[in-house]
Design brief:
The structure is a single chain. Helices cover 13% and strands 40% of the residues. The protein has 2 helices and 8 strands; from the N terminus they run βββαββαβββ. By secondary structure, the protein is mostly beta strands. The radius of gyration is 16 Å and the shape is elongated. The N and C termini lie close together (8 Å). β7 and β8 form a beta hairpin. It has one domain: TonB (TolA/TonB C-terminal domain, 2-Layer Sandwich). 24% of the residues are buried. Strands 1, 2, 4, 5, 7 and 8 form a 6-stranded mixed beta sheet that branches. Strands 3-6 form a two-stranded antiparallel ribbon.
Length: 126
Amino acid sequence: MHKIIVAVVLSLALSPVAVRAQDSTSASTYLEFQVERQARLRIGQPPLYPSQLRDARVNGQVLVQYVIDERGAPQMESFKVLKSSDAEFSESVRRAVTKMSFFPAEIAGRKVKQLVQQPFTFVASK
């Protein structure tokens, strides 16, 4: 019997985007280094391993970027696949992210939007 392992790295990484000055009254989106407390996963399941890729024992990686809003919800209109080894992995990740919930980022005790990058790794083992 073969076990399939989906290793999902749910760490949020620094996003390589241009930085603009933020003021305390704006509803802007912040980067990792601009917040006092980063957004972090509250509830979520790893993406499903696409069956064709699982059966073929294909490993893969997906790197996505999206905004987590002040309520801790991923803003799917901002969702972008930055790097992917297969479109099926990307779609599986997109479906998983839509169901995730986060503790929002904070600045001075105020909940703010944060742009995050999140890597996912799919590993098929024997």
